Amino acid sequence: QYTIRQMCQVLNDAFVGGFITERAYRAFKKRPVSKRAARHEALKRDIELMHEDFFMACYGYRKTYHQLLSQGWSASEVGRDQVYMLMRELGVQGSFTGKAPRTTRPARSSGGRPDLVHRHFQAQAPNRLHVADITYVRLKSGGFAYTAFITDAYSRRIVGWTCATSLKTEDIALPALNEALVWASIRDTTQGLIHHSDHGVQYISRVYSQRVEDYGLLPSTGSVGDSYDNALAERTNNAYKTELVYRHEPFETVEELEFATFQWVDWYNNRRLHQALDYKTPAQVEKEYYHNQQEKEETSILEKRN
Hints:
- By secondary structure, this protein is an alpha/beta fold.
- It has helices at residues 4-14, 22-30, 35-52, 61-70, 80-90, 173-187, 201-204, 206-214, 231-245, 254-270, 282-305; strands at residues 129-138, 144-152, 158-164, 194-197, 218-221.
- It has three domains: 1-31, no CATH class; 41-90; 129-290, Ribonuclease H-like superfamily/Ribonuclease H (Nucleotidyltransferase, domain 5).
- Strands 3-2-1-4-5 form a five-stranded mixed β-sheet, with helices on both faces.
- The longest helix has 24 residues, at 282-305.
- The termini are far apart.
- It comes from Alloscardovia macacae.
- InterPro entries: HTH-like_dom, Integrase_cat-core, RNaseH-like_sf, RNaseH_sf, Transpos_IS3, Transposase_IS3/IS150/IS904.
């Protein structure tokens, strides 16, 4: 409707102390895209593709930044604040964690278990300290399903889990323990492994305690009613709720929940970046540990031969 000359004239009248010429406008239109603008567009494309993934869509700007680095971007090309700015422009953001609910009912006694952890959820190697807890999921029907997790303190790997509609020890806690025992037995040994939990009746029960004793585990519990004494397990529950349950349509059945949990656990163990692990995955941390151990053994053998 208006020519470039007419628009420039109107803009010149509107701006005090400045002017826009027809020649300058045409030169601007022909100017090639700058390297910075092109890099920003490429970053935006990768960020959008990342957040199209159901699980990675929960990443905030810090994990998004480290995920971009793992995908091949150089730290000289992309910065954390730059990712934050681009995510704001795209209107994408990560999921925020909330307070984790309590699900286990405290037993009347601790079953004679001491607290061997004292809120120090650190280990020097995989399968030295496992933490266990149970969380609930409301189904579409209004009923509840329950998920038990056992997490390795060193690698943050979920080494055992199960879903059930019952809180009986044999249905919810024991299957997760059996899975964790198999994992630890294949890769290391269960002897001397600290098994930490809260005072839930499932974990203090005779059948559960007997299985712990049979495999040489050291049972440990925190104080009654204090979630900080099992903070690492609570953190796993919180991530589960934030990254899967709250972002998913209400589950119809426990079987549907179980399949979704299987997918989440696989992602959590093998592809999810963990801030506590310096933005590595549990699988990467374990691989590095066993690789270093193998190198130490080979070096020790060579030194003995020499």
